[in-house]
Amino acid sequence: MSKVRVLVGTRKGAFILTSDGKRDKWEVSGPFFAGWEIYHMKGSPVDPDRIYASQTSSWFGQILQASTDGGKTWFQPGVKPEEAGPPAFPAKISNRFVYDTSDATGKPLTTHQWYDGTQHPWEFKRVWHLEPSLTDAGTVYAGVEDAALFRSADGGESWQELSGLRGHGTGPDWQPGAGGMCLHSVILDPSDPQRIYIAISAAGAFRSDDGGASWKPINKGLYSKYIPNPTAEIGHCVHHVAMNPKRPGVLFMQKHWDVMRSDDAGDNWTKISGNLPTDFGFVIDIHSHEPETVYVVPIKSDSEHFPLDGKLRVYRSRTGGNEWEPLTNGLPQSDCYVNVLRDAMAVDTLDKCGVYFGTTGGQVYVSSDAGDTWSAIVHDLPAVLSVEVQTLA
Question: 74, 53 in Cβ contact below 8 A?
């Protein structure tokens, strides 16, 4: 029988949840890296036992962790065991994410806009998202704050910035969203190894068709009333972008207000919020076998990050948007004021598609029937930052 492994990053450590294909009984392992913020963990599609994790502390900086045995043991790539040691302040180990400052490609990339409109130097803070290669277990991409994309070809031992993203022309005009200027979404196209999609808060979505050497903004059709030009080429606060790998080129987006869809690889977007009670939210994902079935978790507003009326509801569209139904069976329908963050939902690939999400209240929910019914795997973890799932043979 197939198994599933759910990778959960929280404010105070990482947890791994495992079950068989029935998904009704769970084993919980962790916390790993207790006390640290784990913004994201993700396993390699090529070698599922190779898992990468972003370990972050405002005191000690950024550490990359990796496992080659499914999360039983961990190590820091490129760091000798005797040098890994306990954390110290200032950070004893370089985070190795260094912006490109070379004369040829990096020299002009010195500042971006700050909240008040002035220019501010680029400063590395943390890794928000790790995206392992679809074809090589040792290659992995990292989306970071301040917004940039890095790639490692040696399992995380060394990192090189794909500086064409910041340098394509609009980088100096990017401005942080409320949560910082983070590159949080990285999508690799399984049908075209040269095509990469990324999204940045609050710059927008971008696409590369040459493996990350050059980039173009893909924000046509987005409307953001809180920026000087609501239909500008950049400046949109995209919260998350999702794609079903069986249908490359069709993208779904949860924006800071508005749920959007593109059928042409991001060149044009249309609004599909339809009958949602609110179209503000952070997370969006797609059924693994039904590419027109989409999930979102609406929350009240950009200042009140909790569900409407204290009712935790996942909304599902079976028509690719516009027509949405609330999924409530097994979810709290009173006095619930949690949030679901942008990387905190995932779907498995079992025949009965499983959907998972985590909350800032420390709950991780599972639906083994594509959202019809829900149950909590765990109730009392630290605030959940990210959820990924691996379907294992």
Answer: yes
- Copy the structure tokens of residue 14: 């990482």
The number of folded domains in the chain is: 1
Cβ–Cβ < 8 Å for 260, 270: yes
> What phi-psi label fits residue 135: left (phi over 0), alpha (psi between -120 and 50 degrees) or beta?
alpha
- CA 7 to each of CA 225, 348, 367: distance values in angstroms, whole numbers, following the listed order: 36, 12, 16
d(C-alpha 279, C-alpha 77), whole Å: 41
Contact 329/311 with Cβ under 8 angstroms? no
- Domain assignment present for residue 196? The answer is yes
Residue 45 domain flag: yes
As given in the structure block, the two tokens for residue 24 are 């009704």
First to last CA, the chain: 7
- Give the pLDDT confidence score for residue 292 in this predicted structure: 98
Q: Which residue has the tokens 């090189």?
A: 160
The SS3 call for residue 82 is helix
Peptide bond before residue 228 is cis, with ω within 30 degrees of 0? no
CATH code of the domain containing 145: 2.130.10.10
* Inside any domain, residue 86: no
**What confidence tier does 109 reach under pLDDT thresholds 50, 70, 90?**
confident
pLDDT digits (tens, 9 = 90+) for 242-285: 999 999 999 999 999 999 999 999 999 999 999 999 999 999 99
